[in-house]
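Recall the central idea of this unit: under ordinary conditions, the amino acid sequence of a chain determines the structure it adopts. In this exercise we apply that idea directly, starting from the sequence alone.
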Amino acid sequence: MAPAIDNPRLIGLEILLEWEKSHRKLNEILQNALVRFSYLPRQDRAFIKNLTEGTVERLLTLDHVLDSYSKVPSRKMKPLVRGVLRLSVYQLLFLSHVPPSAVCNEAVKMIRRKGAGGLSGFVNGVLRSIVRNMPDLSAIEDLSIKYSTPEWIVDRFCQEYGRDAAEKILQSFVGARPIFIRANQTRIGTDALCDILKDEGVEVRKELAFVAFSLPDMDYALEIRIKGGLEELKSFREGLFSVQDLSSMAVVALAAPNPGDRVLDICAAPGGKACHAAELLKGSGSVIARDVSYQKVALIQENRDRLGLSNLSAEVADARVFEPEAEEKADLVIADLPCSGLGVMGRKNDLKYRVRPEDINSLSDLQRQILENAVRYVKPGGRLVFSVCTLTREETREQSAFLKGFPTLTMLEDRLILPENNGPDGFYIAVFRKAVKGDEA
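Accordingly, the structure predicted from this sequence is:
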């Protein structure tokens, strides 16, 4: 990206083109760009984020609209033209505060700034046609196009949950997602945190519908709305809270660590659940948080240090490799395992384009390999919590059935949380107890 760029739309275009060319994760490219252009006003940086994330999130819908108004199919357009049109159509259809005339004019300027002025007439013509006869997206019946989700994912959801439920799930993945936080009760109470956040200009909602969402009651959970970045809040920098979805909080809440417990989190990065467990222990016991690389462990340590959790340690370890020294040492093992992530597509805008059907089986095999080790780390009378942020049968219920095959394990809890528009992400959580000697199998 040229450092002289200061036009938010042009920056958004560069991000989109790099994403399409490099196949890197959008979030990585976007965050790097926002750091490079940190001198821009907050409003411009927010617009860049909204524009790029929204365009990628609605990609299939945007291409469908382009194909309906252009003689040249979107897949045959030059990447530059396709990128400008995608960004522009997203603004026309989903950003009501942007005047259509401004969208068309800025699109022509972008094409010219990129040295392709000869194509400005084509771009302007397509956009003007759309403006004259705006499409009714609500009339689209194809769920894949309507919610910009690959057909194989739509088909899976329809087969496993029925069309109506599948549409509700898909609908929850587009548009803004709520921001939930977890009060760090080793440092502050929930009510006191609410007061501080309000003083910092943050909108806070405390009354959350846990029962309606099939979640345990978590009095440390809040929903917030914030205009700037989290790092701008003194309360965040001082470790008074963590950002964590309600479903993710529910994993540790259902596992219910007891004071003095020894907790082992075997796939812990970036550390949300390990830190949650350490907070619930209130300074007692210990939490060992592991992950496969130094980079991932560094993320855990960063969160631990910000929250001031002295009973949490982080170390590098491959969960696929059994560690004999840890056998039957943990009162609680947290196994939040690698998965397809199909329950959190609303927070990872490009995930749905990266995951493949064949990934499901390979991830399921990986999960079973890790779970076999996890079971051995639980001491008699201890608990194992298995969770994944996905909704496929192979990665959820079938894995619980696999765990039920261990004669020492008894299932205590089994919850499939479907994503909601203004509620939690999609998650599966199962809690097991390991028998002590003398228990019936």
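The mean pLDDT is 95.
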